[in-house]
Amino acid sequence: MSKLPKKHQFIDLSDYGRPIARIIANSLKSTSFTPVDVTIAFVISGLIGVYCIVSTYYWAAAFFLIFKSILDAADGELARIKETPSYTGRFLDSVSDIILNFIIFMTLWYVTEVSIWWTLLAFFGIQLQGTLYNYYYVILRNRFEGDTTSRIFEDSTPIALPGEKQKNVTILYFIYKALYGIFDEIIYALDKNAPKGKPFPNWLMSLVSTFGLGFQLLIISVLLVFNLKEFIIPFFIGYSILIFVFILIRKVFY
After folding, report:
1. Does residue 125 lie within any of the structural domains?
2. Which domain holds residue 231?
3. What is the pLDDT of residues 183-213, one digit of tens each?
4. What transmembrane ranges does the database entry give (predicted)?
């Protein structure tokens, strides 16, 4: 985990692809490939995974969804290795994630008999899960001088960093707010005092990390491989209940 100092690192169950991501990033260090190129690559991998779901190639779908998760970590690793952090990459990554998530869940609706309304509820649930995980994680990163490209509250257009255009940052920030704003507002309303509380213990962060996109894609992949695609949407609806459990633990003890 590169985003936190070693002293404050926790077992991130959604970050299983980090070792391979570092290998990929290091292999691209001396090339012309940029972090944005890697982000585009994970979008392609995700779309191939979607095609494989529709085509009932579930093992292949699992491979490309997990590979997407690995590349999702590799773009940030490459940015750190090349020392080229950018808000363009940060927002493009997030926008790509939510659009791919929506496509994946619409695909699951298409290949199952689950109601569209349950599907949309599941999608809403996974986005709230991911938002809570990112909220707590970014609080730690900002508190302990980790990577700070992500801000606790994305409430204003950031100033472009060296090497990127302000126009691109502004456009991507607008899209980000349009897509993520409701989820950020809900999580903040549920736990607005989290930035002022005591540092989160490692065990709690490890539990919350199961809300990370990497872990979500792993669950989807496992259920696909076992031909249990009908259970994916109900699972994520039920799993969303833990949002309130984790927030309650945070409020009562930390």
Report:
1. yes
2. 13-253
3. 999 999 999 999 988 888 899 999 999 999 9
4. 38-71, 91-110, 116-136, 203-225, 231-249
Residue 39: give its domain's CATH number.
1.20.120.1760
pTM of the predicted model as reported, rounded to 2 decimal places = 0.93
Q: Is residue 2 part of a domain?
A: no
Q: Is residue 8 part of a domain?
A: no
Please tell me the distance from the alpha carbon of residue 184 to that of residue 105, in angstroms, as a whole number. Answer: 20
Q: Decide: 119 and 233 in contact? Cβ < 8 Å.
A: yes
CA angle 254, 9, 123 (to 5 degrees): 70
Q: What residue has token string 């609706």?
A: 109
